[in-house]
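Researcher:
Attend to token order:
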Amino acid sequence: MSAAPATAGTYYRDLSQVSWSYTDSRAPAASHADPADPVPLGAWQDESGATHVSRVYASFDLSSLVGRHALGARLYAKESTATDCADRQIEVWRTADGPPHPTWQHPRHPLRQVGTIGATSRCPSPLAVDLTHAVTSALADGHTTLSLELREPADVEGQLAHGRQLDAGYGLKLDVSSNGTPSTPTELSNDSRPCASDTAYPYLPATDLRLAARFSDPDSSDRPTGEVEYWPVDHPDQRTVLTATSVSNGSIHGFTVTGTLNDGATYAWHARTRDDLDESSWSTTCYFVADAAGPANPPAVSSDNYSTTGPNTGGTPIDLTFDANGETDVAAFQYSWDTLSIPVTPVGQNWTDPFDGDQFVRADHLGGSATLQLVPPESGPVTLKVASYDRAYQRSTITTIRFVVGDTSPRVTTDQDPQYETPLTVHLAPGPHVDSVSSYEYQVDYGESVTVPAQPDGTATITITLTDPTSNWVYVRSHSPNGWVSSWYRWWIRLDTAPTVTSDTYPENTTGGGPGVPGDFTFSSGVSTVVSFRYSFDGAAGTVVDAADGGSATVSWTPTASGSHYVYVSPITSDGTQLSTTFYAFTVAAQ
């Protein structure tokens, strides 16, 4: 029979044959293993007329069925010759495992008769017998091998009329249909929090609560049914079942409890997996307490050292107190100078408590307060947003508090004018109202931040190189031992990398020469890495000329007409960077 699935959850397969052989009463010490010629069963005569009696033995590997539900099992064989098929009564016995190839003298020990192959209208005929009970009994007893014996009934075993031969090429086949028992759900979570089977039970929202688990079935093609059952612990008779059919095998599936649970009540829930034929055991039981509403009042926010009504000098972190404002179940506060994110945590066993993460501080006790120090992100007007959370991660409305903070960014000076690709020494000093500086952090053109320590007097010196030929940004801020981080000092540096263009015959913005009169134009650049110049007269295709030592080049150009003319010139460095362009205009005199 085919090994492909016939229906969801049901598989048919021929079990592996561990051994098969037959014995001979006239060769009591011999075993005939893996026969290739027709296999005698019952009485038969040899060429000399002597009568023999044979029995057939086989063993099958049941290990592939361990953990599965065996639905049906049939043993198949084929007769190659037979005299009597109307009175056929081949007995099938389950035996002890014993030797793999028994002999007549030492047969396997018979345990019980498990089937009989009876009469057929055809003779010889294909043979079959139902061995479902034998297979399920062997598995229930913990056996992974099923050993069988085929023989004629004792009262006719010696009669030639009842003897027959089995087709050795077909052999004995044990075909079993089975279903993989669905796996007990794992990775149970409620509202993204892991299953709690021991106190203290978590508090969860009483509405739109999500119960989830991983549902799996060993038959990979199955799409099992996930089932969740929940109930109030005080009323186990009030059970609600949530079902999802055709769940993706091996995936986590969530169920939403749409009704409102009783506020303050403790609930239990568990899950199981089902397919068309079997179901898993119930999972571990999880518990939670339903919380019907989040904090009604927003938190109270105050500061002892910063005013909300006037300017503040800065230089010192803001001392803040967040208070539950009368809400007795507040567990933590969330704060941000930007946006308050909604706590989202991974489903399953990788859950982490959002209250331990960024933007959160826990209350000193349930319904209590929290104190902390914060450094504003910038100078000028800044806004802090604060919300409180209860144990079920339900959020209050938001309290907004505003401060005006003075500029404390560092003082930045240089010894020389900035030049392209030329190391620039920069001196850093504390900004106003900053008493002490431990280090400075700086960025050039939005690159990686670099931190340098400050000298005992709070100053530092750094060397930077400007690599943009037109404009560069330098950001600097200071860090103080008291935790203060100044606002950024933002320095925009405009560089002039355009070349100088000169001509004696055709001076810039002046009339000179004439049609047919050649003129020399000299290009020069103060950038040491310039190796050539790209130029174009009157919009013609660009031409490149190499620079001589000292970063200059001279080209000759002869106008063909009087009037206004121009040339564009751009220096090119050794790495191929084209610097700023100079536009040089002049007038050719009429002759």
Notes: Residues 132-140 form the longest helix (9 residues). The longest strand covers residues 68-82. The chain has a mean pLDDT of 94.
